[in-house]
Prior knowledge:
alpha+beta; Jelly Rolls; 2 helices; 20% helix; 46% strand; elongated
Amino acid sequence: xxxxxxxxxxxxxxxxxxxxxxxxxxxxxxxxxxxxxxxxxxxxxxxxxxxxxxxxxxxxxxxxxxxxxxxxxxxxxxxxxxxxxxxxxxxxxxxxxxxxxxxxxxxxxxxxxxxxxxxxxxxxxxxxxxxxxxxxxxxxxxxxxxxxxxxxxxxxxxxxxxxxxxxxxxxxxxxxx
Length: 177
């Protein structure tokens, strides 16, 4: 019977070492952002539980509302975006007098504009919702009128933004709030 206690001690030692390795390699990096082995960063799990946005956030910027209209001639397009920090939200609604092609997309600060992330693309005459910026950068819409008639797009937003940027055939225009 002297072999049984030895096997139990060996199994206990192996399971303890395995538990410590799992804790140090996976649990601490993912749940607490502490990565003593560096494995969490290499696996892309470091800080996973802290990536979720909080249900409540405080803002240092003033709450603002923005209403703007864009008349689009036949086959004309425009982009309108807000400069947002990570986690900032906007509530939006836009309506057009007819169907337009739209693309809601985001560009991370410092990235190539070609690396923009499209979140919603389609054809519609209206969209409404809430958007929370997953990263700092510019976030907003591209609209294109593909009809033979002039169509006006009217956008209403509210949130904690400080700046908007319009991109059109006339060039780039920044507006401070």
